[in-house]
Amino acid sequence: VQLQASGGGLVHPGGSLRLSCEASGFRFDTYWMYWIRRAPGKRLEWVSVINPGDNYTDYQESVKGRFTISRDNAKNVLYLQMHSLKSEDTAVYYCAKDRRPWDRHEYDYWGRGTLVTVSS
Asked: Average pLDDT in the 37-43 region?
């Protein structure tokens, strides 16, 4: 299993970024997929989740209305569009897969992350 996130960088408060995650080594289109993040000095936290069919999403309260998760099952890619970024969004972002196909359980594997820094 490989999950490679990209698209991070330095952005001013209020700015936007789009993260991507290329997945391989498993049946991407059968797994719930997550974006998770770890802010400096803090624990890993869940940000967003999407079902295999790309018709159900959920978000942590702090990012609702600002972040949008999506996926392209034909390309095995997961996305996170982020708008109105705040300093508290600064973190390393990872994409993660559920531990089992089809049903939502919990994420159990994440790959290399991408750093998002929101600063003026």
From this structure: 95
